[in-house]
Amino acid sequence: MATKVTVEQHVAEGASPELREVFGGIAAAAREIGKKIRLAGLSDVLGAYGAVNVQGEQQQKLDVFANGVMLRSLGKLASVIACVSEENEEPIPFYRAGAKYIVIFDPLDGSSNIDVNVNTGTIFSVQELSSSTADATIFDVTASILQPGTKQVAAGYVVYGPSTVMVMTTGAGVAAFTLDDNGDFVRSSESMHMPEQGPYYSANEANAASWPAAYREYLAMLLRGELNGKAYSARYIGSLVADFHRTLLKGGVFLYPPTDKAPKGKLRLLYEANPLALLAEQAGGAAVNGPKRILELQPEQIHQRTPLIVGSKREVEALQKAVLEAR
Ligand code: AHG
Ligand code: MN
Ligand code: MN
Predict the structure, then answer these.
(1) Please, what are the domains in the chain?
(2) What is the C-alpha to C-alpha distance for residues 158 and 122, in angstroms, rounded to an integer?
């Protein structure tokens, strides 16, 4: 029987032990969020909260609950200087000298799937204060929040499904942890690798008519089997975390291209695209916004959106080539 290694122990023994406290805070929050989701049908946390968030999207009760749990669990940590959340318009700074981590998160991803008992998730990205001032009560964290994805010191997600699984990286490969009956996230995979290619593509094809033509032509090319000699199957869950998790394990490509409704893409750079792009690259895959590598994009504002194509290298590089050639 392999020895039990928790995510906190894994981080403490890894390259960045000082991140242990942050992962402890995320694990504690994920336990609480997962429990609420599992029992959602028995408590009044399903359905709309009755407010609209900064994204102009209807907040679900569980979005608001998950956000509160993340803020409470991370906000009390000595090493956390600020949080950024999909559900809060502005960053939440904690005026705490000596703290240096900024935790940027989507507290509950896949809100449209909450009420139908389909996988949802929590996505997180950790940046470090790029230059601390002498007096920690008057610094501006914005510059440190708007660093490109290459500067992330950690990233990951928790997927709430038949199992509750945390997948994470601190820049030294990708590991997975399964929540056990004692409430520990126990290492279930020490080093995850994205398959080189296929068999799935994942996109909301209802938007295909408004994608740039290069994306439609790319998909037609995949379906003709011209990339790897055989056709693909379609899989689309509608929760980014679940669609990404399957892509990481099985290979293939997830695409959320520009659409008429979302010409800059729908997904958010800081707390959806960047963390998943770091995980993809750390696992041997790739992530682009069409022409460019996601991790090199310079963020301009904390809720900015981006097209996201992420998955196996073969498929992502073929898409990037198709988009660049169409210019
Ligand atoms: P969130 O629930 O955090 O707003 O994210 C929803 C996102 C993402 O999870 C998913 O990939 C995408 O919305 C689905 O969008 P469509 O319904 O337009 O396909
Ligand atoms: Mn999301
Ligand atoms: Mn969300």
Answers:
(1) 7-189 (3.30.540.10), 200-326 (3.40.190.80)
(2) 5
| Per-residue pLDDT reduced to its tens digit, 130-163 | 865 444 444 568 889 999 999 999 999 999 999 9
pTM of the prediction? 0.96
Q: Measured from the CA of 256, which atom of ligand 1 is nearest? A: 11
Q: How far is CA 299 from its chain centroid?
A: 16
| From 43-52, 175-184, 217-226, 245-254, the region with the lowest mean pLDDT | 43-52
> Which protein residues are within 6 Å of ligand 1, measured from CB?
57, 86, 106, 109-112, 204, 238-240, 266
Q: Which residues, listed in sequence order, are joined to residue 263 by a DSSP beta bridge?
A: none
Q: Token pair 């520990």 is at which residue?
A: 184
Distance CA 226, CA 256 (A): 21
Pull the structure tokens for residue 223.
């379906």
Q: Report pLDDT for 198.
A: 85
Residue type, 146: L
